[in-house]
Amino acid sequence: MNRMDCLKELVNWIDVNDPVVTSLSSNTAIWASLREQGANFYAWNMGLTVGFSVGLSFAFPKRKVVGLDSDGSFMVDTSALITMAEANPANLMILVFDNQSYARMGPTATSRATDLEKMAQGAGIKKTATIRTLDEFTRVVKPAVGETGPHFFVVKVEAETVRLKRDPRRTSGRPMKEFFVDAVMKHPDHSGNRGGVPS
Amino acid sequence: MDPQSGQIIIETLKEEGVDMVVTLPEEPTFSLTEAIRKDSYFTSLTVAAEGNGIALCAGAALGGRKVMFVTGIAGLMVGTWALAQCSIVYGVPMLIMASYRGDIGDHSGIPGSQLLLFKQVAEPLLNTLRVPCRVVDKISDLKRTIRDANFAAHDYSSPVVLLLSGEVLW
Hints:
The complex is a heterodimer.
Chain A: H1 3-13, E1 20-23, H2 26-34, E2 40-44, H3 49-59, E3 65-70, H4 71-74, H5 79-87, E4 92-98, H6 116-123, E5 127-131, H7 134-145, E6 151-156, H8 168-171, H9 173-186
Parallel strand pairs in A: 1-2, 1-3, 3-4, 4-6, 5-6
Helix pairs in contact in A: 1-2, 1-7
Chain B: H1 3-16, E1 20-23, H2 27-37, E2 43-46, H3 50-62, E3 67-72, H4 73-78, H5 80-90, E4 94-99, H6 112-128, E5 133-136, H7 142-156, E6 159-164, H8 166-169
Parallel strand pairs in B: 1-2, 1-3, 3-4, 4-6, 5-6
Helix pairs in contact in B: 1-7, 3-5
């Protein structure tokens, strides 16, 4: 299964107003090529995608918040699973695209004994799955978009090198953040300092 | 914790509209975070590690929430990767309150070698990470300093740290 095919499906299942967070590299390049509109925060580096997504879910309690992480980045700080389980945001969906490799630099531990889904279950996250085919992706992820979470899905994909042309202002650093904040300010749910717990 | 400090901090956070507080429990700030947790005005979350706590605050803050992270000075050192991303890479406005273990006069019983590490490294480290910080060692300065720090965090688009000494916090 290939990550692009999965994300091409996902972009049609979620609302354009559902915020999306990506980790660095392939997730950023692919997601940026698929969705220009909406609140997209790109390229969190090493271990920060899940924590940021949990926080964002408390800012948008009525929206599905989607975090797109990858195995190498995610494994830098798996304590985020405990934080996610403790915070328990009903509107959060995390997808870890697991290609079992550090780009071209060799296999990650998920190619051997490490089972990220079991780690999530051990942390206390109840709605989890490991997905291996596109049919399964559709069967599991599509309905979860409309269901109460939090969800944590490990999506096994082929190792690939993604080369897509992208605008760095929209996908990295402070210029990207400004695009994101601008999208938040224009978001239909935005009303200044909102309170709320996702339920 | 001096009850007056807790009262001032909670009152000032409410005045500033800070309604989400994230913490990793540690002894000097425990009374404060417990008081916050029991106050229904606040959304209170406990995290498992400082890095994901800072990242969580970043998500909430950029999503429009007014948020504060409460930790200890050692926790700030643990969370430096996330802090560097939030300060240098993205510029995320965020108020952080940390107990200033290791300040001169700390008789807490923590080994002196650890206290020395906190004293000698923490402030230079925050400076290196381009995270503005201020030591608060007088209760009478608390309210104004919290207000100023919260303003500065948004004005600078940066995390801003208040290091609360023993005179204020424990």
